[in-house]
Amino acid sequence: MPSPSLNKVLQRARRGLRQHLTPGRGAVASLPLLWLGLFFGLPFLIIARISLSEVVIGLPPYSALVDLAESGMLQVRLNFANFLLLWEDNLYLDAFANSVHVASVSTLICLLIGYPMALGITRVRESLRVPLLMLVILPFWTSFLIRVYAWIGILKGNGLISNVLMSLGLIDEPLHLLHTEFAVYLGIVYAYLPFMVLPLYATLSRMDNALLEAAADLGCRPLCAFWRVTVPLSLPGIIAGSLLVFVPAVGEFVIPDLLGGPDTLMIGKVLWTEFFNNRDWPVAASVAVALLALLVAPVLLFERFRERGQSE
Amino acid sequence: MAGPRPELEAWQDPTAAPLVEINGVTKTFGSHYAVDDVSLTIFPGEFFSLLGASGCGKSTLLRVLAGFERPDKGRVLIGGEDVTDLPPYRRPVNMMFQSYALFPHLTVADNVAFGLRQERIPRGEIRQRVEDMLKLVRLNEFARRKPDQLSGGQRQRVALARSLVKHPKLLLLDEPLGALDRKLREHTQFELVNIQERLGITFIMVTHDQEEAMTMSTRMAVMNEGRIRQIGTPSEIYEFPSNRFVAGFIGAVNQFEGRVVEQQDDLLLVHVDDSEGDAAELRVRSSQAVAPGTPVVVAVRPEKVRIGTTEPPAGDNRLHGRIEEIAYLGDVSIYHVRVPDGSLIEAQLTNRARRAAAPLTWGDEAWLGWNSEDAVALLE
């Protein structure tokens, strides 16, 4: 049974929805809203609440926000020390900065590789397009973790690359590819490339070929037509693909943990360490909240950009 | 609609230099001949139409001229220069696309300026030329809008302005009025011809609408299955179709299949197959010498067929039949008359004449007749 106050909130939400949508559409819209509320909103609130508590030894390993003091007063204690720590301890800021750096570079590499791929798929004859798209999606059929582990086998000292190069006589000693910055970039680009290719393909395949012909007709060489017509028209795909790569790459934990070295400093790893090694849930939670704020900003910017584009 | 023109048209003048020469162009897609050995000469200042049903190859021919399709055989010359192997961006030609192909991310002014920005033209001049062109198509107030904020007619005019702003020697128009509604189309026909005459640019237009081709063109080519079936002025093609396809494609026509019996000067006596009496003997003018026994089709337009109750003198082209249907089209009425051999003949009467003449109605017996010089003999 929902409490009366919750009922009131739901009622108000329902009324608000009805103002904008017809009843049938309201029902359709409320389903994803419910889903988001249940699986995103609620967990986030829990995390936000933990981030404002203090670490204690016990179960759960954080203090309560509301307690009854000895004087009989109900007191709410919000602890902002965790967020201050993030600001004061260079470890966190460095990890944030490095994560953003790694994610940005990876996104750029994904774009540089993914754009020609997506464009190529739109240009081949129709019967080849679906098989090529399938090849892009195919890696998803294997567990993400297993694919990252596979890279260990390929990159490690006596792994595939080193062995092949050594047997060809190109190198004398095994290459130290694993546990390097390079391996982290490789892993992220490999893992997130499909997220770049698919939205790019979606926008590029919708583009009217007559527009390129019109550009050529007006004196534009192919490269000029690419810059003046194809790129601007695929901007929504570029932005969507970049966000889909950038956002998860910033918080990525598995790839830097498995492929990166001990000095690879990324916020996802820091988060893991705080939660599971240090058992400092409040600090870990505040890292998560800060990370979310960091990631929501570009999405909001994108939304605003899109709205402006539509209203223009 | 066309303004006054010189006595001798360019295509009749043997000394005139052609602007476009298409020599034996063939373009296949797989085993399908989209354009099949087409040769065509177009002169400066012409408004030339390629007319045909969809799939007849007219658009492919236009795309060959623009440079989007490379012909398998044959050459294309523009202004005496062989452009067959030149890419579109190096041809002195611009095209107005059927879908308009306006750049959705650019404003109207930027769409029009697109082609000029390629050419290192000073900014001020670009602005001036864009402004002039937008004024010409009466869109100067819409310069800052995006294409999706315009009506269909406005988009059509942006496309026209964009394709004209570079002052091409030749403008190619692919069904330029196809997406407009009827009323706007008639108005725009007029406007296009005006602009063409004012700028003196040669136009080649692809259309499936015969009325459009007839009202706008100086000359036109009727195409079917990749081939040109006839080239001529609209009146030549309408009055003197050279084959059955053209006669049937342009306007309505009554056709009688038969054989030539004899030729008297420029008059052919034709025996119509499977018929007797008056209907079996038709006279038709022909400037060619035709041997007796040659199969021939006598074609006569409904508006050339007289209909009445009085019997035309024997020896005229005459048929007797019963009126089966009268279609009232506002300005004219079309009579469908069943003649003894079973075929339906169409006769057209203006409603002014219909009211003046003896009232004919459904089921009446009527005489049909026409002058020998109003019919054509199709030998193909």
Give an overview of the whole structure:
Chain A contains 14 helices and two strands. With 312 residues, chain A is mainly α. Chain A has two domains: 24-79, no CATH class; 80-311, MetI-like fold (Orthogonal Bundle), CATH 1.10.3720. Chain A has a two-stranded antiparallel ribbon. Chain B has 380 residues and is of the alpha+beta class. Chain B is 23% helix and 34% strand. In chain B, a hairpin with a 2-residue loop joins strand 9 and strand 10. Chain B starts with 19 loop residues before the first strand and ends with a strand. At the A-B interface, helix 9 and helix 10 of A face strand 6 of B.
Strand fraction of chain A equals under 5%
Indicate the percent of residues in helices of chain A: over 70%
Distance between the termini of chain B: 33 Å
Quick one: how many beta strands of chain B?
20
Rg value of chain A: 25 Å
Strand sequence of the main sheet of chain B, in spatial order? 6-7-8-3-9-10
Estimated structural class of chain A: mainly alpha
Kindly report the average pLDDT value of chain A: 87
User: What class would the helix/strand composition of chain B place it in?
Assistant: alpha+beta
Tally of separate domains of chain B: 2
User: Could you spell the SSE succession of chain B in H and E letters?
Assistant: EEEHEEEHHHEHEHEEHHEEEEEEEEHEE
Looking at the structure, the CATH topology of the largest domain in chain B is: Rossmann fold
- Largest interface, chains and sizes: A-B, 19 and 24 residues
Intertermini distance of chain A = 48 Å
Beta strand count of chain A: 2
Task: Give the amount of beta strand of chain B, in percent.
Answer: 25-35%
So what's the CATH class of the largest domain in chain A?
Answer: Mainly Alpha
**Helical content of chain B, roughly?**
10-25%
What's the number of structural domains of chain A?
2
Major pleated sheet of chain A:
2 strands, antiparallel
Unreliably modeled segments of chain B: none
